[in-house]
Amino acid sequence: MFHRKTLYWLLFLTVFVHCKPNTENKEVVKEQKEVISQEEALAIGQDIAVASQQVLGKNLKQAIEKKGVLGAITFCNTAAIRLTDSMATAYKHSIKRLSDKPRNQMNQASRAEEKLIAAYSKDLAEGKSISPSAFKKENGGYRFYQPIVSNKLCLNCHGVVGQQVNEKTFAQIKALYPNDKATGYAANQIRGLWAIDIEN
Q1: Is the CA virtual torsion 162, 164, 166, 167 positive or negative?
Q2: Predicted local distance difference test score (pLDDT) of residue 17
Q3: Which of 37, 58, 99, 104 has the most CB atoms around it within 10 Å of its CB?
Q4: b/e per residue, 137-176, with b = 16+ CB within 10 A?
Q5: Average pLDDT of the residues in 96-102
Q6: CB-CB contact of 138 with 192 (8 Å)
């Protein structure tokens, strides 16, 4: 009888141990659920890019209204990156503006990003629709890109010199940005990219 009771207890303990909830597996499942999808990265990135563009555009228009195009150049030189950084802090994601023909050399696109700009430019020139991209990073998360398309307002400082960009404006640009490459654009052309790192 003693041996039979002992056997029952051993069986009970064995079943209890094996059926006990595995908290380690639960943590793994939780981590897997928290990994962001490409669709989520695209949605998050687009929200941030649109909000950042609106903030820059609003402040740029105010600078033009107060001090004209020359005032806008000074604004871009002193405040644009600071505003972008403040948006990055607010959203807790790295936010940059990149170009294959930058005005500020800090905004130089990589070779891979230059190819992406060229692909977007080709599609836009051929009348194809363009949309944001999100590429998975090696260390997790995504790098989101949204094309920056030139408009009439942009051409005051980024258009053709001697036409949309007058000589006085161009002289101010060269004084602040000796290595400037960001002129010669027409409306509805790809001028660069918003680049946003979306982490898990």
Answers
A1: negative
A2: 40
A3: 99
A4: eeeebbbbbbbbbbeeebbbbbbeeeebbeeebbebbeee
A5: 97
A6: no
Residue ranges of E strands in the chain: 95-98, 133-136, 142-149, 190-198
Say whether pLDDT at 129 is over 70. Answer: yes
Residues 24-77: tens digit of each pLDDT: 444 443 344 468 999 999 999 999 999 999 999 999 999 999 999 998 898 899
The residue type found at 43 is A
CA distance 88 to 96: 9
Q: Mark residue 127 as left, alpha or beta (left: phi above 0; alpha: psi -120 to 50; beta: remaining).
A: left
Instruction: Give the pair of three-digit tokens for residue 50.
Output: 């649109």
* Rg of the Cα atoms in the chain: 27
pLDDT at 34: 60
Q: Which pair of tokens denotes residue 127?
A: 């009348």
Burial of 12 (0-12, 13-18, 19+ CB in 10 A): exposed
187 three-state secondary structure: coil
Stretch 158-167: mean pLDDT, rounded?
96
Q: Determine contact, residues 195/52, Cβ cutoff 8 Å.
A: no
Distance between CA atoms of residues 194 and 88, nearest Å: 12
Does residue 146 contact residue 43 with C-beta atoms inside 8 Å?
Answer: no
Scored b (16 or more CB within 10 A) or e, 89-113 reads: eebebebbbbbbbbbbeebebeeeb
